[in-house]
Amino acid sequence: MKLKNKFFVIFFLLIFTNTTASENFFDNAKNLYEKKDYEKSKFLFQRNLVFNPKDSKSYLYLAKIYEIEENEKETEKNLNSTLLLEPDNEEAMYMIIDIELKRSNFSKVKELQADFEKICTSLCEKITSINERLKNFDTSNES
């Protein structure tokens, strides 16, 4: 009986410690990101994902860091991971749309824009920006 109780207590403490550690990694990483210490924050976001591989916010912040570093492949990979875990993440969706606009992949942009319009709550003003950029491309193509 005592062995069962000890095992239960140890198991509970391990789970609680892991949860606290991963939250601490994320919070520390976010603070470093806000201080523009991208290398250290990137390391901590990656470490957080080891403990919590379904943390869409860590993937989003990694995408932002890779965007600053101009690493489009890693940016897109992390944005796709964010959207896989959280399909209604407006910021990730807008960042993907921006990448596709830069690539001139306008059919994909229109498809993503339709999805974006369905989910937007706080970034809806970006729809106008997307439409403007699409319109500018259409008028420059006609010239």
Number of helices: 7
CATH topology-level name = Serine Threonine Protein Phosphatase 5, Tetratricopeptide repeat
Biggest sheet character: none
The stretches of 5 or more residues where confidence is low (pLDDT under 50) are none
Q: Indicate the CATH class.
A: Mainly Alpha
Total domains: 1
Shape: elongated
What is the ordering of alpha helices and beta strands? HHHHHHH
Helix-strand makeup class: mainly alpha
Going by CATH, the homologous superfamily would be Tetratricopeptide repeat domain
> Which range best describes the helical content: under 10%, 10-25%, 25-40%, 40-55%, 55-70% or over 70%?
over 70%
Secondary-structure arrangement, i.e. CATH architecture: Alpha Horseshoe
Please give a structural write-up.
The chain has one domain: Serine Threonine Protein Phosphatase 5, Tetratricopeptide repeat (Alpha Horseshoe). The protein has seven helices and no strands. The protein has helices at about 1-35, 40-50, 55-70, 70-85, 90-100, 105-120, 125-140. Helix 3 packs antiparallel against helix 4 (about 70-85) and helix 5 packs parallel to helix 7.
Give the secondary structure arrangement, pairings included.
Layout: H1 2-34, H2 38-51, H3 56-68, H4 72-85, H5 90-102, H6 106-119, H7 126-142
Helix pairs in contact: 1-2, 2-3, 3-4, 4-5, 5-6, 5-7
Which key phrases capture this entry?
about 140 residues; mainly alpha; Serine Threonine Protein Phosphatase 5, Tetratricopeptide repeat; 7 helices
Summarize the structure.
By secondary structure, this protein is mainly α.
